[in-house]
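Colleagues,

For the teaching module next term, I've prepared a clean inverse folding example: a structure given as tokens, and then the sequence designed for it. I'd like students to try predicting residues themselves before seeing the answer, so please don't circulate the second half yet.
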């Protein structure tokens, strides 16, 4: 019988429910349990694929091509497991399934209602995922009291009746604000949040308190008294200098042991955190700093490039350095200011994106990197703008462009994939998920970066490099270093005239881990660090 842990949040959003769930998952996995994890998002979008990065942050893509909430990235980085679309459940998915069932006649004439039909569909997804693991940890997005989240809360309220109360644990993450005028942490928001949860029929077993200060024994007693939990079940989750410190913070309070005891899983082995602690030790003892200019169009929201930022950090720590990421809004880059703006950078990274806005600035960044031999990593759109710049600046094709931005360009060096022609529906229709990439013998990608003949990487794009121009590019020094064996798509390009200039059509950031940085990022950071003596 699977065990179920539900992580809810109260008072305000962005408290760290995802990091709490991911940290618990990592601790339980290191204790020998087969851990599953699920994110339940109350929004009506079927998935995150059509949502603005300004509003929702990055779209995290799984191996099977699901476009998901960024919390799945945290889960993968902490638990070190590849997830799938089944690990993401939105209101949109649930209602779409229910309406599809109704149209097909599956409900046999019943009046279709939130209870039981919507809640049953939620429970079906939860238990299907739970059947494949020892412990399923499920995070419910949003805040208790949000109207759109109520069907999910009602569903998890019902679950103990199906699987037994001893197999379910409710963990509520809440805020203890510090009021300077009184000089103390205030528990009243937590009390109100728990009261709202209890009004919906859920009594939390554990309360995790986000706080800027230590949570005293007296405060734990007070929370325990008003929220009907033992004081020892009140866990402090103080603000940390890095999210990767949280598992150790929770472990120091025996949070994982408490969860296992409540679920009747006593006696598990102690977690092996040696690799994680070694990563934190390297992070804490870095002696150098490397500066990376991140030239993008969504830089106002740091979460828009969350996995890129984390991958850069993982790679820098592995190279014995701390990374300073300088966000550069590509819309603000001009021929007049590009040198001044980017001269501080040891490396330049242009990430993915869609649409024509900010493209001239990204092309300027690629040109700066090529002309000044600054290490350059172009991801997805970042590879495409590097190809456009090379065509204009080296091949002499002044009007070269992408059909995405200029449908009538005489030199479409980037064009729409054949499989995308005629596609009218936007959601879930791109080239998505993991595809193989064969690496060209003698290339930097094969011999120095991956040190393998083939790899698998995750994708999210509609446009690709135009194979018709390949010979001209390669003759001038921009070599194709990776090709998908299934469809022949160009996956990696290298400018061999530069010390380190690589563009990739895929998204390597999604596969980077704290204890195992992605080879592309590790090599990019190493090259950027070698630039420093000449640049500074």
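(Answer key — instructors only)
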């Amino acid at each position: 019988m699977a065990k179920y842990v539900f992580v809810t949040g109260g008072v305000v959003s962005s408290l760290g429910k995802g990091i709490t769930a991911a940290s618990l998952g990592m601790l339980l996995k290191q204790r020998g349990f087969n851990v599953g994890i699920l994110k339940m998002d109350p929004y009506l979008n079927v998935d995150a694929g059509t949502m603005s990065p300004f509003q929702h942050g990055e779209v995290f893509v799984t191996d099977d091509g699901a476009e998901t909430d960024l919390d799945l990235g945290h889960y993968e980085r902490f638990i070190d497991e590849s997830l799938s679309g089944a690990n993401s459940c939105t209101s949109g998915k649930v209602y779409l399934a229910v309406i599809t069932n109704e149209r097909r006649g599956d409900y046999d004439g019943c009046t279709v209602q939130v209870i039981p039909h919507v809640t049953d569909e939620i429970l079906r997804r939860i238990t299907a995922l739970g059947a494949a693991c020892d412990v399923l940890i499920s995070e419910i997005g949003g805040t208790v009291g949000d109207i759109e989240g109520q069907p999910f809360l009602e569903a998890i309220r019902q679950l103990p009746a199906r699987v037994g109360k001893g197999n379910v644990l409710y963990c509520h993450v809440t805020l203890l604000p510090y009021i300077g005028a009184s000089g103390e942490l205030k528990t009243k928001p937590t009390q109100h949040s728990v009261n709202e949860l209890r009004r919906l029929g859920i009594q939390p077993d554990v309360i995790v308190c986000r706080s800027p200060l230590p949570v005293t024994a007296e405060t734990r007693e007070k929370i325990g008294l008003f929220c009907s939990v033992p004081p020892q079940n009140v866990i402090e989750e103080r603000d940390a200098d890095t999210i990767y410190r949280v598992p150790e913070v929770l472990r120091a309070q025996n949070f994982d042991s408490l969860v296992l005891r409540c679920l009747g899983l006593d006696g598990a082995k102690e977690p092996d955190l040696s690799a994680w602690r070694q990563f934190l030790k390297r992070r804490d003892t870095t002696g150098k700093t490397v500066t990376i200019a991140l030239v993008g169009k969504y830089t106002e929201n740091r979460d828009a490039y969350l996995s890129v930022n984390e991958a850069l950090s993982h790679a820098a720590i592995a190279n014995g350095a701390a990374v300073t990421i300088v966000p550069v809004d590509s819309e603000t880059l001009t021929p007049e200011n590009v040198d001044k703006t980017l001269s501080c950078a040891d490396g330049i990274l242009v990430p993915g994106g869609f649409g024509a806005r900010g493209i001239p600035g990204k092309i300027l960044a690629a040109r700066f990197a090529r002309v000044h031999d600054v290490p350059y990593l172009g991801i997805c759109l970042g590879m495409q703008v590097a190809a456009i710049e090379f065509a204009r600046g080296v091949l002499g094709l002044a009007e070269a462009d992408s059909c995405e931005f200029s449908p009538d360009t005489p030199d479409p060096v980037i064009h729409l994939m054949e499989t995308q022609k005629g596609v009218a529906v936007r959601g879930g229709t791109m080239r998505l998920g993991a595809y193989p990439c064969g690496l060209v013998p003698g290339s930097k990608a094969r011999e120095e970066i991956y040190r393998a003949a083939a790899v698998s990487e995750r994708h999210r794009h509609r446009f690709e490099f135009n194979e018709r121009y390949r010979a001209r590019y390669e003759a001038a020094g921009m070599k194709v270093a990776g090709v998908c064996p299934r469809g022949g798509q160009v996956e990696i390009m290298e400018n061999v005239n530069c010390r380190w200039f690589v563009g990739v059509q895929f998204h390597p950031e999604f596969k980077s881990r704290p204890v195992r940085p992605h080879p592309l990022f590790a090599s990019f950071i190493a090259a950027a660090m070698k630039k420093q003596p000449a640049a500074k």
